[in-house]
Design brief:
7 helices, single chain, three-stranded antiparallel sheet, TAT_signal, mainly alpha
């Protein structure tokens, strides 16, 4: 018996109503654009307000952040915090143009937009086509600090923070790594 991977185009579409689609998306924990200037979660109590970027652009950045640095145990709100810094006038043109380019690539692959590509594999393939662009490099580089400098997620990785003020790692945490 062989296992084959299915893509969204392989799945039957009949019988899927708008209500059913929304129910599936909500069950999967999707991020939705809600009204002017807001992006909200369907499975948790968080929202991010946009002042310069379009809400659809912010939702794309959140999904893009999750696809670049995927961690199943990290909630979308931390990714939203990580990309919120791009909602400024200095970077708005670069970000909006980059998301537009991302959506053009997605359309060339048969999706309505980057967000409409339901499978991570498809979204990563789309990202690979723009990975050398200034847009992608800006987002990727900013995520390193934007995501991993959030103290609330450190325990998920087993990181206890800096150790210098506590005498260094020899006396604090040098041998307690249990996940390697």
């Amino acid at each position: 018996m062989s296992v084959t991977e299915t893509s969204p185009s392989d799945l039957p579409v009949r019988g899927l109503t708008r209500r059913g689609l929304l129910a599936r998306a909500m069950a999967a924990g999707a991020v939705f654009v809600v009204g002017a200037g807001f992006v909200a979660s369907t499975d948790a109590a968080w929202a991010v307000e946009t002042t310069t970027l379009k809400p659809e652009t912010m939702a794309t950045l959140i999904q893009m952040a999750r696809d670049i640095y995927p961690h199943d145990r990290i909630a979308d709100r931390f990714y939203a915090i990580a990309v919120k810094g791009y909602d400024n006038a200095e970077q708005a043109a670069l970000i909006e143009e980059g998301v537009t380019a991302l959506n053009i690539v997605a359309k060339s692959k048969g999706f309505d937009s980057y967000l409409a590509a339901g499978w991570e594999k498809d979204r990563v393939e789309i990202l690979r086509t723009v990975e050398h662009s200034p847009f992608f490099q800006t987002i990727r580089a900013g995520l390193v600090t934007g995501l991993y400098n959030q103290k609330e997620i450190w325990p998920l990785f087993g990181y206890e923070g800096e150790s210098y003020s506590h005498g260094g790692y020899i006396d604090r945490g040098f041998n307690d790594i249990d996940w390697l």
